[in-house]
Protein backbone atom coordinates (compact mmCIF):
# COMPACT_ATOMS: atom_id res chain seq x y z
CA UNK A 1 0.00 0.00 0.00
CA UNK A 2 1.44 3.37 -1.02
CA UNK A 3 1.63 5.96 1.77
CA UNK A 4 -0.82 8.86 1.53
CA UNK A 5 0.86 11.98 0.09
CA UNK A 6 -0.40 14.28 2.83
CA UNK A 7 0.97 11.93 5.46
CA UNK A 8 4.33 11.90 3.70
CA UNK A 9 4.51 15.70 3.64
CA UNK A 10 3.68 15.86 7.34
CA UNK A 11 6.15 13.08 8.07
CA UNK A 12 8.94 14.85 6.22
CA UNK A 13 8.16 18.07 8.05
CA UNK A 14 8.58 16.23 11.33
CA UNK A 15 11.71 14.52 10.02
CA UNK A 16 13.20 17.87 9.02
CA UNK A 17 13.09 18.98 12.63
CA UNK A 18 15.34 16.06 13.54
CA UNK A 19 18.14 17.02 11.17
CA UNK A 20 17.95 20.80 11.00
CA UNK A 21 20.72 21.54 13.47
CA UNK A 22 24.24 20.83 12.19
CA UNK A 23 26.41 22.68 14.73
CA UNK A 24 27.17 19.78 17.05
CA UNK A 25 27.85 16.18 16.17
CA UNK A 26 25.34 14.62 18.52
CA UNK A 27 23.11 17.67 18.97
CA UNK A 28 19.79 17.40 20.75
CA UNK A 29 16.84 17.21 18.37
CA UNK A 30 14.33 20.09 18.31
CA UNK A 31 11.19 19.29 20.31
CA UNK A 32 8.53 21.37 18.57
CA UNK A 33 6.45 18.25 17.80
CA UNK A 34 7.00 16.34 21.04
CA UNK A 35 7.06 18.12 24.39
CA UNK A 36 9.50 16.28 26.61
CA UNK A 37 8.42 18.32 29.63
CA UNK A 38 5.02 16.63 29.40
CA UNK A 39 6.48 13.13 29.43
CA UNK A 40 4.16 10.53 28.04
CA UNK A 41 1.29 12.87 27.28
CA UNK A 42 2.15 13.44 23.63
CA UNK A 43 2.29 9.76 22.86
CA UNK A 44 -0.89 8.93 24.72
CA UNK A 45 -2.97 11.89 23.58
CA UNK A 46 -1.62 12.39 20.07
CA UNK A 47 -0.86 9.02 18.48
CA UNK A 48 -0.88 10.61 15.02
CA UNK A 49 2.02 12.84 16.05
CA UNK A 50 3.92 9.83 17.34
CA UNK A 51 3.20 7.93 14.12
CA UNK A 52 4.44 10.88 12.08
CA UNK A 53 7.57 11.12 14.20
CA UNK A 54 8.28 7.41 13.72
CA UNK A 55 7.67 7.83 10.01
CA UNK A 56 10.32 10.53 10.13
CA UNK A 57 12.81 8.01 11.51
CA UNK A 58 11.85 5.49 8.85
CA UNK A 59 12.24 8.22 6.21
CA UNK A 60 15.72 8.88 7.57
CA UNK A 61 16.58 5.35 6.48
CA UNK A 62 16.03 6.26 2.80
CA UNK A 63 16.66 10.01 2.57
CA UNK A 64 19.76 11.57 1.03
CA UNK A 65 22.21 13.51 3.17
CA UNK A 66 21.31 11.72 6.41
CA UNK A 67 24.99 10.93 6.89
CA UNK A 68 25.72 14.65 7.02
CA UNK A 69 27.13 15.12 3.51
CA UNK A 70 26.02 15.86 -0.05
CA UNK A 71 27.83 12.80 -1.36
CA UNK A 72 26.07 10.68 -3.96
CA UNK A 73 26.75 7.68 -1.73
CA UNK A 74 24.95 9.22 1.28
CA UNK A 75 21.37 7.92 1.12
CA UNK A 76 20.62 5.92 4.24
CA UNK A 77 20.67 2.22 5.00
CA UNK A 78 20.92 0.96 1.44
CA UNK A 79 23.96 3.18 0.95
CA UNK A 80 25.76 1.37 3.76
CA UNK A 81 24.64 -1.95 2.34
CA UNK A 82 26.69 -1.09 -0.78
CA UNK A 83 29.69 -0.04 1.28
CA UNK A 84 29.70 -3.24 3.31
CA UNK A 85 29.17 -5.43 0.25
CA UNK A 86 32.32 -3.87 -1.18
CA UNK A 87 34.21 -4.63 2.04
CA UNK A 88 33.08 -8.26 1.94
CA UNK A 89 34.55 -8.55 -1.55
CA UNK A 90 31.41 -10.16 -2.95
CA UNK A 91 30.51 -6.90 -4.69
CA UNK A 92 33.17 -6.05 -7.26
CA UNK A 93 33.79 -2.58 -8.60
CA UNK A 94 34.53 -3.54 -12.20
CA UNK A 95 34.82 -0.05 -13.72
CA UNK A 96 35.62 3.20 -11.94
CA UNK A 97 34.87 6.02 -14.37
CA UNK A 98 33.24 8.39 -11.85
CA UNK A 99 35.24 7.32 -8.78
CA UNK A 100 32.21 7.34 -6.49
CA UNK A 101 33.58 4.34 -4.56
CA UNK A 102 37.18 4.33 -5.73
CA UNK A 103 39.01 5.01 -2.45
CA UNK A 104 36.61 2.78 -0.58
CA UNK A 105 36.92 -0.22 -2.89
CA UNK A 106 40.68 0.37 -2.85
CA UNK A 107 40.52 -0.11 0.95
CA UNK A 108 41.97 3.36 1.59
CA UNK A 109 38.99 5.17 3.14
CA UNK A 110 38.32 2.95 6.15
CA UNK A 111 41.80 3.45 7.61
CA UNK A 112 41.62 7.25 7.36
CA UNK A 113 39.58 8.71 10.21
CA UNK A 114 39.32 12.03 8.35
CA UNK A 115 37.56 10.41 5.39
CA UNK A 116 33.82 11.07 5.07
CA UNK A 117 33.22 7.38 4.41
CA UNK A 118 33.91 6.82 8.11
CA UNK A 119 31.85 9.84 9.13
CA UNK A 120 28.61 9.18 7.27
CA UNK A 121 27.56 5.87 8.86
CA UNK A 122 28.48 7.12 12.34
CA UNK A 123 26.44 10.27 11.78
CA UNK A 124 23.51 8.40 10.27
CA UNK A 125 23.14 5.65 12.88
CA UNK A 126 23.51 8.07 15.79
CA UNK A 127 20.78 10.22 14.24
CA UNK A 128 18.51 7.18 14.25
CA UNK A 129 19.46 6.56 17.89
CA UNK A 130 18.89 10.17 18.90
CA UNK A 131 15.49 10.31 17.19
CA UNK A 132 14.44 6.98 18.68
CA UNK A 133 15.47 8.21 22.13
CA UNK A 134 13.23 11.23 21.65
CA UNK A 135 10.22 9.04 20.87
CA UNK A 136 10.99 6.78 23.84
CA UNK A 137 11.35 9.80 26.14
CA UNK A 138 7.99 11.16 24.98
CA UNK A 139 6.37 7.87 25.98
CA UNK A 140 7.78 7.99 29.48
CA UNK A 141 11.26 6.55 29.04
CA UNK A 142 12.94 3.17 28.86
CA UNK A 143 11.22 1.61 31.86
CA UNK A 144 7.62 2.74 31.29
CA UNK A 145 4.99 0.66 29.49
CA UNK A 146 2.36 2.95 27.92
CA UNK A 147 -1.26 2.28 28.81
CA UNK A 148 -2.55 2.57 25.25
CA UNK A 149 -2.07 -0.11 22.61
CA UNK A 150 -0.84 2.49 20.11
CA UNK A 151 1.68 3.78 22.65
CA UNK A 152 3.04 0.28 23.22
CA UNK A 153 3.41 -0.28 19.49
CA UNK A 154 5.17 3.07 19.03
CA UNK A 155 7.54 2.34 21.90
CA UNK A 156 8.30 -1.12 20.51
CA UNK A 157 9.20 0.29 17.12
CA UNK A 158 11.40 3.01 18.63
CA UNK A 159 13.31 0.52 20.78
CA UNK A 160 13.81 -1.80 17.81
CA UNK A 161 15.05 1.09 15.65
CA UNK A 162 17.50 2.10 18.36
CA UNK A 163 18.83 -1.45 18.62
CA UNK A 164 19.05 -1.73 14.82
CA UNK A 165 21.29 1.34 14.75
CA UNK A 166 23.52 0.12 17.58
CA UNK A 167 23.84 -3.29 15.92
CA UNK A 168 25.16 -1.83 12.68
CA UNK A 169 27.53 0.44 14.58
CA UNK A 170 29.00 -2.58 16.40
CA UNK A 171 29.46 -4.41 13.11
CA UNK A 172 31.05 -1.51 11.26
CA UNK A 173 33.28 -0.08 13.98
CA UNK A 174 34.60 -3.24 15.63
CA UNK A 175 36.25 -6.29 14.02
CA UNK A 176 34.40 -8.82 16.18
CA UNK A 177 32.55 -9.34 19.43
CA UNK A 178 34.91 -8.98 22.38
CA UNK A 179 33.01 -8.45 25.62
CA UNK A 180 35.55 -6.27 27.44
CA UNK A 181 36.64 -4.14 24.48
CA UNK A 182 35.41 -0.55 24.43
CA UNK A 183 33.53 0.29 21.27
CA UNK A 184 30.81 2.99 21.17
CA UNK A 185 29.32 5.79 23.23
CA UNK A 186 26.03 4.40 24.52
CA UNK A 187 23.12 6.87 24.64
CA UNK A 188 20.11 5.43 26.45
CA UNK A 189 18.15 8.64 26.93
CA UNK A 190 17.46 11.77 24.93
CA UNK A 191 18.96 13.87 27.73
CA UNK A 192 22.21 11.93 28.12
CA UNK A 193 25.36 14.10 28.06
CA UNK A 194 28.38 13.15 25.93
CA UNK A 195 29.37 9.59 26.80
CA UNK A 196 32.63 7.68 26.83
CA UNK A 197 32.92 4.43 24.90
CA UNK A 198 30.97 1.60 26.48
CA UNK A 199 32.21 -1.97 26.39
CA UNK A 200 30.94 -4.36 23.77
CA UNK A 201 29.20 -6.31 26.53
CA UNK A 202 27.32 -3.20 27.65
CA UNK A 203 26.19 -2.34 24.12
CA UNK A 204 25.08 -5.90 23.43
CA UNK A 205 23.21 -6.17 26.72
CA UNK A 206 21.38 -2.95 25.84
CA UNK A 207 20.49 -4.13 22.33
CA UNK A 208 19.20 -7.44 23.69
CA UNK A 209 17.15 -5.61 26.32
CA UNK A 210 15.71 -3.23 23.71
CA UNK A 211 14.78 -5.94 21.23
CA UNK A 212 13.36 -8.28 23.87
CA UNK A 213 11.18 -5.43 25.10
CA UNK A 214 10.21 -4.54 21.52
CA UNK A 215 9.08 -8.10 20.82
CA UNK A 216 6.75 -7.96 23.82
CA UNK A 217 5.45 -4.47 23.04
CA UNK A 218 4.79 -5.33 19.38
CA UNK A 219 2.77 -8.44 20.16
CA UNK A 220 -0.48 -8.08 18.22
CA UNK A 221 0.71 -5.13 16.13
CA UNK A 222 -0.79 -5.30 12.64
CA UNK A 223 1.15 -2.94 10.43
CA UNK A 224 -0.35 -1.25 7.38
CA UNK A 225 3.00 -1.33 5.55
CA UNK A 226 6.15 -3.43 5.76
CA UNK A 227 7.99 -0.13 6.20
CA UNK A 228 7.18 -0.41 9.91
CA UNK A 229 8.97 -2.79 12.24
CA UNK A 230 6.74 -5.50 13.65
CA UNK A 231 7.36 -8.38 16.03
CA UNK A 232 8.91 -10.53 13.28
CA UNK A 233 11.43 -7.85 12.33
CA UNK A 234 12.37 -7.35 15.98
CA UNK A 235 12.89 -11.11 16.38
CA UNK A 236 15.03 -11.24 13.24
CA UNK A 237 17.16 -8.31 14.44
CA UNK A 238 17.62 -10.01 17.80
CA UNK A 239 18.62 -13.21 16.00
CA UNK A 240 21.34 -11.29 14.17
CA UNK A 241 22.55 -9.74 17.42
CA UNK A 242 22.84 -13.13 19.12
CA UNK A 243 24.45 -14.75 16.07
CA UNK A 244 27.14 -12.06 15.88
CA UNK A 245 28.39 -12.99 19.36
CA UNK A 246 29.55 -16.37 17.99
CA UNK A 247 28.97 -18.16 21.30
CA UNK A 248 27.17 -21.48 21.70
CA UNK A 249 24.35 -20.27 23.95
CA UNK A 250 23.76 -17.24 21.74
CA UNK A 251 23.80 -19.40 18.61
CA UNK A 252 20.96 -21.48 19.98
CA UNK A 253 18.97 -18.37 20.87
CA UNK A 254 19.54 -16.99 17.37
CA UNK A 255 18.35 -20.24 15.81
CA UNK A 256 15.22 -20.27 17.96
CA UNK A 257 14.31 -16.73 16.95
CA UNK A 258 14.98 -17.40 13.26
CA UNK A 259 12.73 -20.46 13.43
CA UNK A 260 9.97 -18.38 15.03
CA UNK A 261 10.10 -15.88 12.17
CA UNK A 262 9.97 -18.71 9.64
CA UNK A 263 6.95 -20.17 11.44
CA UNK A 264 5.09 -16.86 11.12
CA UNK A 265 4.35 -17.78 7.52
CA UNK A 266 6.36 -15.66 5.10
CA UNK A 267 7.02 -17.79 1.98
CA UNK A 268 10.44 -18.09 0.43
CA UNK A 269 10.78 -16.12 -2.79
CA UNK A 270 10.12 -18.45 -5.70
CA UNK A 271 12.49 -19.09 -8.59
CA UNK A 272 10.57 -16.59 -10.72
CA UNK A 273 10.55 -13.97 -7.97
CA UNK A 274 14.33 -14.01 -7.48
CA UNK A 275 14.73 -12.97 -11.11
CA UNK A 276 11.76 -10.61 -10.96
CA UNK A 277 13.51 -7.34 -10.15
CA UNK A 278 13.47 -7.07 -6.33
CA UNK A 279 11.47 -3.90 -6.75
CA UNK A 280 8.22 -4.35 -4.80
CA UNK A 281 7.61 -4.37 -1.06
CA UNK A 282 4.49 -6.43 -1.72
CA UNK A 283 6.66 -9.47 -2.46
CA UNK A 284 5.33 -12.03 0.08
CA UNK A 285 8.79 -13.21 1.15
CA UNK A 286 9.92 -9.71 2.17
CA UNK A 287 9.74 -8.98 5.90
CA UNK A 288 10.94 -5.37 6.02
CA UNK A 289 11.62 -2.64 3.50
CA UNK A 290 10.50 0.80 2.34
CA UNK A 291 7.55 1.62 0.13
CA UNK A 292 9.04 4.28 -2.14
CA UNK A 293 6.88 6.78 -4.02
CA UNK A 294 7.66 9.83 -6.16
CA UNK A 295 6.96 11.96 -3.07
CA UNK A 296 10.16 10.61 -1.50
CA UNK A 297 12.11 12.57 -4.13
CA UNK A 298 14.81 10.01 -4.90
CA UNK A 299 16.61 9.95 -8.22
CA UNK A 300 20.27 9.37 -9.15
CA UNK A 301 21.33 9.63 -5.49
CA UNK A 302 19.82 6.35 -4.34
CA UNK A 303 20.47 2.63 -4.16
CA UNK A 304 18.79 2.17 -7.54
CA UNK A 305 20.92 5.02 -8.87
CA UNK A 306 24.05 3.11 -7.89
CA UNK A 307 23.04 -0.47 -8.68
CA UNK A 308 20.46 -0.73 -11.48
CA UNK A 309 21.46 -0.40 -15.13
CA UNK A 310 17.78 0.18 -15.98
CA UNK A 311 17.76 3.32 -13.83
CA UNK A 312 19.50 6.59 -14.73
CA UNK A 313 22.53 5.50 -12.77
CA UNK A 314 26.23 5.18 -12.21
CA UNK A 315 25.81 1.45 -12.80
CA UNK A 316 24.75 2.26 -16.36
CA UNK A 317 27.04 5.26 -16.93
CA UNK A 318 30.40 4.00 -15.73
CA UNK A 319 30.85 3.01 -12.08
CA UNK A 320 30.03 -0.60 -12.85
CA UNK A 321 29.41 -3.14 -10.13
CA UNK A 322 28.99 -6.89 -10.41
CA UNK A 323 29.30 -10.12 -8.53
CA UNK A 324 32.83 -11.25 -7.70
CA UNK A 325 33.74 -13.65 -10.50
CA UNK A 326 35.13 -16.21 -8.07
CA UNK A 327 31.80 -16.34 -6.27
CA UNK A 328 29.93 -16.43 -9.58
CA UNK A 329 31.96 -19.48 -10.64
CA UNK A 330 30.73 -21.32 -7.54
CA UNK A 331 27.07 -20.99 -8.51
CA UNK A 332 25.78 -24.20 -10.07
CA UNK A 333 24.88 -23.91 -13.75
CA UNK A 334 21.35 -25.19 -13.02
CA UNK A 335 20.78 -22.72 -10.18
CA UNK A 336 18.28 -20.00 -11.17
CA UNK A 337 20.46 -17.49 -9.31
CA UNK A 338 23.19 -17.94 -11.92
CA UNK A 339 20.91 -16.11 -14.35
CA UNK A 340 20.70 -13.05 -12.08
CA UNK A 341 24.06 -11.90 -13.46
CA UNK A 342 25.09 -10.93 -16.98
CA UNK A 343 28.49 -12.42 -17.97
CA UNK A 344 28.51 -10.25 -21.12
CA UNK A 345 28.27 -7.05 -19.04
CA UNK A 346 30.71 -7.10 -16.12
CA UNK A 347 28.60 -9.69 -14.25
CA UNK A 348 26.15 -6.91 -13.38
CA UNK A 349 22.95 -8.03 -11.59
CA UNK A 350 20.82 -7.16 -14.61
CA UNK A 351 18.39 -9.96 -13.87
CA UNK A 352 18.24 -9.59 -10.10
CA UNK A 353 17.76 -5.87 -9.39
CA UNK A 354 15.96 -3.97 -12.12
CA UNK A 355 13.20 -1.52 -12.95
CA UNK A 356 10.36 -3.40 -14.60
CA UNK A 357 10.44 -1.26 -17.76
CA UNK A 358 13.94 -2.63 -18.45
CA UNK A 359 14.96 0.47 -20.41
CA UNK A 360 18.68 1.17 -20.05
CA UNK A 361 19.06 4.34 -17.96
CA UNK A 362 15.28 4.71 -18.04
CA UNK A 363 14.01 5.20 -14.46
CA UNK A 364 14.82 8.80 -13.51
CA UNK A 365 12.61 9.29 -10.43
CA UNK A 366 12.59 6.30 -8.14
CA UNK A 367 9.38 4.42 -7.43
CA UNK A 368 10.89 0.94 -7.00
CA UNK A 369 10.99 -0.13 -3.37
CA UNK A 370 13.86 -0.89 -1.00
CA UNK A 371 14.40 -4.25 0.66
CA UNK A 372 15.94 -4.48 4.15
CA UNK A 373 15.09 -8.05 5.14
CA UNK A 374 13.42 -11.20 3.78
CA UNK A 375 12.58 -14.56 5.22
CA UNK A 376 15.33 -16.39 3.29
CA UNK A 377 17.78 -14.75 5.68
CA UNK A 378 16.16 -16.57 8.58
CA UNK A 379 16.30 -19.95 6.80
CA UNK A 380 20.02 -19.43 6.21
CA UNK A 381 20.71 -18.06 9.69
CA UNK A 382 18.85 -20.98 11.26
CA UNK A 383 20.90 -23.40 9.13
CA UNK A 384 24.14 -21.65 10.05
CA UNK A 385 23.43 -21.71 13.78
CA UNK A 386 22.33 -25.37 13.59
CA UNK A 387 25.53 -26.34 11.77
CA UNK A 388 27.62 -24.56 14.38
CA UNK A 389 25.85 -26.39 17.17
CA UNK A 390 26.14 -29.88 15.63
CA UNK A 391 22.48 -30.01 14.65
CA UNK A 392 23.32 -31.17 11.15
CA UNK A 393 19.86 -32.54 10.40
CA UNK A 394 18.20 -29.21 11.11
CA UNK A 395 20.82 -27.37 9.08
CA UNK A 396 20.33 -29.65 6.07
CA UNK A 397 16.55 -29.30 6.30
CA UNK A 398 16.64 -25.51 6.24
CA UNK A 399 19.18 -25.44 3.42
CA UNK A 400 17.18 -27.93 1.35
CA UNK A 401 14.03 -25.87 1.86
CA UNK A 402 15.77 -22.87 0.32
CA UNK A 403 17.48 -24.74 -2.51
CA UNK A 404 14.23 -26.41 -3.50
CA UNK A 405 13.17 -22.96 -4.70
CA UNK A 406 16.40 -22.39 -6.66
CA UNK A 407 16.65 -25.67 -8.61
CA UNK A 408 14.03 -27.41 -10.70
CA UNK A 409 15.60 -30.84 -10.17
CA UNK A 410 16.17 -32.11 -6.62
CA UNK A 411 19.14 -34.17 -7.78
CA UNK A 412 21.07 -30.93 -8.32
CA UNK A 413 21.20 -30.22 -4.59
CA UNK A 414 21.01 -33.78 -3.25
CA UNK A 415 24.68 -33.43 -2.26
CA UNK A 416 23.55 -31.39 0.76
CA UNK A 417 22.26 -34.57 2.42
CA UNK A 418 25.79 -35.95 2.49
CA UNK A 419 27.32 -32.91 4.20
CA UNK A 420 28.11 -32.62 7.90
CA UNK A 421 30.33 -30.66 10.28
CA UNK A 422 32.53 -27.96 8.79
CA UNK A 423 31.65 -28.97 5.22
CA UNK A 424 27.98 -28.34 5.95
CA UNK A 425 28.71 -25.00 7.65
CA UNK A 426 30.86 -23.88 4.74
CA UNK A 427 28.07 -24.75 2.32
CA UNK A 428 25.57 -22.72 4.34
CA UNK A 429 27.95 -19.75 4.31
CA UNK A 430 28.43 -20.08 0.56
CA UNK A 431 24.69 -20.27 -0.07
CA UNK A 432 24.20 -17.22 2.14
CA UNK A 433 26.64 -15.24 -0.02
CA UNK A 434 24.90 -16.39 -3.20
CA UNK A 435 21.31 -15.95 -2.04
CA UNK A 436 21.77 -12.56 -0.38
CA UNK A 437 24.26 -11.08 -2.83
CA UNK A 438 23.90 -7.30 -3.11
CA UNK A 439 21.49 -7.08 -0.16
CA UNK A 440 24.00 -5.90 2.44
CA UNK A 441 24.30 -9.16 4.37
CA UNK A 442 27.63 -10.62 3.20
CA UNK A 443 29.66 -8.36 5.50
CA UNK A 444 27.67 -9.49 8.54
CA UNK A 445 28.31 -13.13 7.58
CA UNK A 446 32.00 -12.45 7.02
CA UNK A 447 32.33 -10.92 10.49
CA UNK A 448 30.42 -13.51 12.50
CA UNK A 449 32.05 -16.43 10.65
CA UNK A 450 35.54 -14.90 10.82
CA UNK A 451 36.18 -15.51 7.16
CA UNK A 452 39.18 -15.02 4.94
CA UNK A 453 37.86 -13.34 1.79
CA UNK A 454 39.60 -13.61 -1.58
CA UNK A 455 38.76 -11.15 -4.34
CA UNK A 456 38.30 -12.48 -7.83
CA UNK A 457 39.92 -11.24 -11.00
CA UNK A 458 37.21 -8.72 -11.96
CA UNK A 459 37.89 -6.12 -9.25
CA UNK A 460 39.46 -2.82 -10.35
CA UNK A 461 41.39 -2.77 -7.07
CA UNK A 462 43.21 -5.60 -5.29
CA UNK A 463 42.19 -8.38 -7.67
CA UNK A 464 43.25 -11.71 -6.17
CA UNK A 465 43.74 -10.25 -2.69
CA UNK A 466 43.10 -12.61 0.23
CA UNK A 467 42.19 -10.62 3.33
CA UNK A 468 40.96 -11.78 6.75
CA UNK A 469 37.88 -10.32 8.43
CA UNK A 470 40.13 -8.85 11.14
CA UNK A 471 42.23 -6.75 8.76
CA UNK A 472 41.90 -3.07 9.85
CA UNK A 473 40.91 -2.15 6.31
CA UNK A 474 37.63 -4.06 6.72
CA UNK A 475 36.48 -2.13 9.81
CA UNK A 476 35.61 1.56 9.98
CA UNK A 477 37.54 4.12 12.03
CA UNK A 478 35.74 6.31 14.55
CA UNK A 479 35.56 9.57 12.58
CA UNK A 480 37.53 12.69 13.35
CA UNK A 481 34.34 14.68 13.98
CA UNK A 482 33.39 12.40 16.89
CA UNK A 483 36.89 12.49 18.35
CA UNK A 484 36.95 16.28 18.18
CA UNK A 485 33.53 16.59 19.86
CA UNK A 486 33.88 13.83 22.43
CA UNK A 487 36.49 14.58 25.13
CA UNK A 488 36.37 10.96 26.30
CA UNK A 489 37.72 9.51 23.05
CA UNK A 490 41.44 9.91 22.42
Automatic annotation (TrEMBL):
One term under GO cellular component = cell outer membrane
Pfam families cross-referenced by the UniProt entry: SusD-like_3, SusD_RagB
Q: Which domain of life is it from?
A: Bacteria
The record's annotation in Gene3D superfamilies points to: 1.25.40.390
SusD-like N-terminal domain spans which residues?
Answer: 109-242
| Domain RagB/SusD stretches | 350-454
The subcellular location is: Cell outer membrane
Q: Does the keyword DNA damage apply?
A: no
What keywords are assigned to this protein?
A: Cell outer membrane, Membrane, Signal
Family the entry assigns: Belongs to the SusD family.
Q: What is this protein called?
A: SusD-like starch-binding protein associating with outer membrane
Amino acid sequence: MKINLLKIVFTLAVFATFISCEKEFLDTSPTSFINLDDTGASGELNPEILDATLNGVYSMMINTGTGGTTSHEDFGQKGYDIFTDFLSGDLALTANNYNRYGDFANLLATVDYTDNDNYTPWRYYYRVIRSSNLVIKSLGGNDVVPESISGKHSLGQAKALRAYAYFYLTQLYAPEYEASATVLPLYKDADDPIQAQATMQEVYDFMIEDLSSAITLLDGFTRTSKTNINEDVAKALLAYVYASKDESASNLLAKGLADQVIASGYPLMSSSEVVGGFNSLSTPGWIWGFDLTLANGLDLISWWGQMDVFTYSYQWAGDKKGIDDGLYAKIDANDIRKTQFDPANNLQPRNKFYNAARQIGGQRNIEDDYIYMRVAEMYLLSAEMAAKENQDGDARTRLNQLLSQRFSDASDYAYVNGLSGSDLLNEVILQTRIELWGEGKSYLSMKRNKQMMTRGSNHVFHAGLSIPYSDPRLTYEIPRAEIQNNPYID
